[in-house]
């Protein structure tokens, strides 16, 4: 049976048509152009997977280019984090580039545009320029400085570059058409004067190019064939193409801008400004807080590169904006971890279970499987003794027939161990159960092959031997917001929808083998969820983050 051929997305269709008509395969080149003013989030991961995925599909180079044109917000920390994220996702760039690499070339092109009558220095306040732009239904008004002489424009522009003019007094504008139906074509600003130190160029430049001027020309300089942007840049395409026409392209390949829908994810915000506000107001601990939708936050929470790439592949590339349910992302990580995560036992809300007919000093090491989804994962041994911890919710003194866990007079199996029967409870002065007493069937050991071991009981519980248990801090992470679209309410701030239960910290116990677990190691705590070791772990303190529960509890709540 032949393989089903995967259909092309609309961007791949465009590339295939270009290969037939305009481009050779050797001319294909892509880029991922982040602005280093924050940490990348899951939306950027989609763009990374798209651009680098096309590079892999067509055997074409992909540049990592930092759009570092705003020294006020950009830091080396963000550059480093972006590089780490791209590499972690499993991609390698061809060249590491920066818009600042092209500051001199951009400046030279701007000077030529002034000489050719395509640009001028405007000296009006920004509010006045904004008012002169008109409205979508009314044409704009020409600036009184639009008729400045070429010599005066060149002189002022050079003084702006050298920092000889006051910051913010002048801007360089393209001279296009103040009556254009596309308001972005109404003499857009190309440069602003900004007397700030740049993280790469220092104080060499006192003017900085705006995105629309720097982006397309950077694409052209690198000979990018297809410049992929999100839908908010649709109206920018006309300006992108105009700039390419007025600079000297020397018959080289002109990049083609194509737009696709950005990723909007439920129960979170995707604005870098809002994510920065969450960090700065200490709503979260850092950019890599496991509740954040940042790639570093997802990584710390326990997500895998494979799960994020699978998520990006599943949602595909669309032409219209829509909101993707975060449960799909959670499904992808469950599916991946189910295949690779070792099964272990941990108890998050412990109550002591005493097996009254088990010898006081007796101790056994029982064999149990590491991962039923992977035979090659093998087995390990776990200690068993008279006193165990089980989950408090796994016991009821009295229970109906639908409660398949432990209760008085009923039997359950302890995972990889014995069948036990609830006998009585011990309570404190407040009526809280502090011990559950039970008896065990010594012939019912799992895997022993005895008739008793083959006896069927309806429930199986996880457990940890009290004598051998390792205490751990368990961080139970949940969705940061308690509504699907926290930043679309016109009456309330997104901050009002913070989920107060997005982080709960409990003290639990895990089997002793986890004492040696390293940072970022991933496990399935049986019957509970998937967890990984947090970087806060020390020799004296074991810390686990819950990556995701075994099942989608939010889905049940919504139903």
TrEMBL record:
Family matches, as Gene3D superfamilies: Glutamyl-trna Synthetase, Domain 2, Glutamyl-tRNA Synthetase, Domain 3, HUPs, Ribosomal Protein L25, Chain P
Reactions that this protein is recorded to catalyse: tRNA(Gln) + L-glutamine + ATP = L-glutaminyl-tRNA(Gln) + AMP + diphosphate
Domain of life where this protein originates: Bacteria
Any single Pfam family the record assigns to this protein: tRNA-synt_1c_C2
Enzyme Commission number(s) from the entry: 6.1.1.18
UniProt enzyme class: ligase
Location of the Glutamyl/glutaminyl-tRNA synthetase class Ib anti-codon binding domain: 341-441
Keywords of this entry: Aminoacyl-tRNA synthetase, ATP-binding, Cytoplasm, Ligase, Nucleotide-binding, Protein biosynthesis
Cellular component aspect of the GO annotation: cytosol
Occurrences of domain tRNA synthetases class I (E and Q) anti-codon binding (ranges): 460-534
Domain Glutamyl/glutaminyl-tRNA synthetase class Ib catalytic: 28-338
Presence of keyword Cell division: no
GO biological process, one term: glutaminyl-tRNA aminoacylation
InterPro entries from the UniProt entry: aa-tRNA-synth_I_CS, Gln-tRNA-synth, Gln/Glu-tRNA_Ligase, Glu/Gln-tRNA-synth, Glu/Gln-tRNA-synth_Ib_cat-dom, Glu/Gln-tRNA-synth_Ib_codon-bd, Glu_tRNA_lig_a-bdl, Rbsml_bL25/Gln-tRNA_synth_N
Name used for this protein in its record: Glutamine--tRNA ligase
Organism from which the protein derives: Gillisia limnaea (strain DSM 15749 / LMG 21470 / R-8282)
């Amino acid at each position: 049976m032949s393989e089903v051929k995967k259909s092309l997305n609309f961007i791949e269709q465009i590339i295939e048509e270009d290969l037939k008509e305009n481009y050779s395969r050797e001319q294909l080149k892509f880029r991922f152009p982040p602005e280093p003013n924050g940490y990348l989030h899951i939306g950027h991961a989609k763009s990374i997977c798209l651009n680098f995925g096309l590079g892999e599909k067509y055997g074409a180079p992909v540049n990592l280019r930092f759009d570092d044109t705003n020294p006020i917000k950009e830091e080396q920390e963000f550059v480093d984090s972006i590089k780490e994220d791209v590499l972690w996702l499993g991609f390698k760039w061809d060249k590491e580039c920066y818009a600042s690499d092209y500051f001199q070339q951009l400046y030279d092109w701007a000077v030529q545009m002034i000489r050719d009558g395509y640009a001028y220095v405007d000296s009006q306040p920004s509010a006045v320029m904004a008012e002169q732009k008109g409205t979508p239904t009314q044409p704009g008004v020409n600036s009184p400085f639009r008729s400045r002489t070429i010599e005066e424009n060149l002189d002022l522009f050079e003084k702006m570059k050298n920092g000889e003019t006051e910051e913010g007094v002048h801007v360089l504008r393209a001279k296009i058409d103040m009556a254009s139906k596309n308001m972005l074509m109404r003499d857009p600003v190309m440069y602003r004067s900004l007397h700030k130190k740049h993280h790469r160029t220092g104080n060499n430049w006192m003017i900085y190019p705006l995105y629309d001027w720097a982006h397309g020309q950077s694409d052209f300089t690198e000979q990018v064939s297809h410049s992929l942007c999100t839908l908010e840049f649709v109206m920018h395409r006309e300006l992108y193409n105009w700039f390419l026409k007025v600079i000297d392209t020397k018959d080289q390949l002109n990049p083609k801008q194509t737009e696709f829908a950005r990723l909007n994810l439920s129960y979170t915000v995707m604005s870098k400004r809002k994510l920065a506000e969450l960090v700065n107001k200490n709503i979260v601990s850092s950019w890599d807080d496991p509740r954040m939708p940042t790639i570093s936050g997802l990584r710390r929470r326990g997500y895998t590169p494979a799960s994020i790439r699978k998520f990006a592949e599943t949602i595909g590339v669309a032409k219209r904006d829509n909101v993707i349910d975060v449960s799909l992302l959670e499904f992808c990580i469950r599916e991946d971890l189910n295949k690779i995560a070792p099964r272990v036992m941990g108890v998050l809300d412990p109550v002591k279970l005493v097996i009254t007919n088990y010898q006081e000093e007796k101790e056994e090491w029982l064999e149990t499987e590491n991962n039923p989804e992977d035979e090659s994962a093998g087995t390990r041994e776990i200690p068993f003794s008279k006193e165990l911890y089980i989950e408090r919710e796994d016991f009821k003194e009295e229970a109906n027939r639908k409660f398949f866990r432990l209760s008085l007079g009923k039997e359950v199996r302890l995972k990889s161990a014995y069948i036990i029967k609830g006998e009585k409870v011990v309570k404190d002065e407040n009526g809280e159960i502090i011990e559950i007493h039970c008896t065990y069937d010594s012939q019912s050991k799992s895997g022993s092959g005895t008739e008793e071991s083959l006896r069927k009981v309806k429930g199986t519980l996880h457990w940890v031997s009290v004598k051998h248990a390792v205490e751990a801090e368990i961080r139970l992470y949940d969705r940061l917001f308690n509504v699907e679209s926290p930043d679309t309410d016109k009456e309330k701030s997104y901050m009002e929808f913070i989920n107060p239960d997005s982080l709960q910290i409990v003290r639990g116990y895990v089997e002793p083998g986890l004492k040696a677990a390293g940072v970022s190691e991933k496990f399935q705590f049986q019957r509970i969820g998937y967890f990984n070791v947090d970087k806060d772990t020390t020799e004296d303190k074991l810390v686990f983050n819950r990556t995701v529960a075994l099942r989608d509890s939010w889905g049940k709540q919504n139903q």
